[in-house]
Write a structure and sequence with these properties.
511 residues; alpha+beta; Serine Threonine Protein Phosphatase 5, Tetratricopeptide repeat; Immunoglobulin-like; 4 domains; 5-stranded antiparallel β-sheet; 29 strands
Length: 511
Amino acid sequence: MSTKRKVILVLIVGLSMLLVVLVGGLAWYGYDSTNYTRHIARAEKYLSAGDTESAILEYQVAINMKPESEDAYLKLAEIYSGLGQNTMAQSVLTKGFNATGSNRITRALAVYADNGIQEAVNVVDGGEGAAPDMILFDGEGEGINTELLSVIGSTEYNDLRNKYTVDSNASADGGCMVRLSSMGANLHYDKKSTDSSGRKPLGSAEPDQAVLDNILSLFYGKKGVTEQDLSYFGAENIGTYDDASHGKVITFVSGACMVTVSLDANGTISSGAWHSIVPLSRTEYADEAGSCTANGKVLSSTTGGNVVDAELRFREGDKTFGEIIQTVRSDSFGGYSILLNPGEYTVEVQCVGYTTEFFPIEIGFTDYVTLDDIYISPLLGDGQIRIVLEWGSSPRDLDSHLEGNVDGGGHIHTFFSQQKEVRNGETVAELDLDDTDGYGPETTTIYNTNGVYTFKVIDFTGSGTMSNSGAVVKIYLPDGSAPIEVNICSGLNNEWNVCTIDHGKVTVNNR
């Protein structure tokens, strides 16, 4: 673990535990393999019932569980292709080929190449012999690539050339132009941001304009983007007007940039359209909509990974119903960006395969704010319960302990040095996430509720300040309802008895 005392505790167990660890590891490997097959089977069952969304989710889970297996990639790509989402299908196959090297996936990708669909473009790290640092155009999501806009809008030239491959610098009208082939972009710097040679930006300079080789890269390759799509993707300050040189154009604000792009005869953004991307200062960005730019991320409470395509619905005050003032979706990196006036809000977060939850947020009088990460819980199976612990910055290390007896299986105890309890080849309970530097989450999932368990929180640091930690425990039940929330009580030192779970029935102790 991250601290000396935890290491000592593990060492005390001694060499006699080595065999148990090895056996447990083999059991876990077998369990993962079984689960992969189970998720594939569930996906096929959902497909036969016409539930495409659930099938997609099951295949995605299977891929995450066993990325070296080709079947889930091929089947998921087939679904996306059937839905007409060919870019998504190609993205899945590209990811699958990179993970497996499968000839079957190669043949499937050839079909999309024959149809003229462009491959994803990777940004290459500037370091010699280094692996790619970031995939900006990965095609794994639908929306506006705010990660790309962030690079364009707020990356100093020194950072840019250190991180990415700069192909060339050249003089341009009143300044200089930097070519990034790996990003598929030309960045323009005005005269005051250019050094005396007139061919190179100053180290601290940020671009004042950018043009992409293909504007559709900004939308993960989606063709025929409409004004309605932009609104759905969370773009701000959308407007159209007639331009003498470029005909009908549309403008919008996203990712701290103002984007202007021409529309075709169908009123859509198509490949090769004229466009201009102009970075905005934080003040300018806020002024465009008269509000604050709030950025955040949606993450899984069991893996800590990004949650893609979560819908965030914002309401004023502490309301969990009524008028929704704004809606935005998380992108391929789990991130979102929204413009809000100062005040208090409640955000409702929905995503396929996850429990719907509500979170309070507060926006101050500022141009820009990074909100706390939002953790949401995957839906549970029958007879399962999940417990999620979150707290503030201090104490830095609160530990989750689940202890009790499972019917016919004896005593179990999950905590930082015994994260998984298996009986008769089946997982009884597991500490999914262990946090040691404040905030959490720490997540425990009970897979077998046929037993009597107690959930406690212990301050590993022994600070005696637990009651001031702001800790809250959320208890999720298999019916998908809102979680039971338990806020830490006063008068505690270093141990908090949160609840008892008796054969699935939860009793809050809070003492």
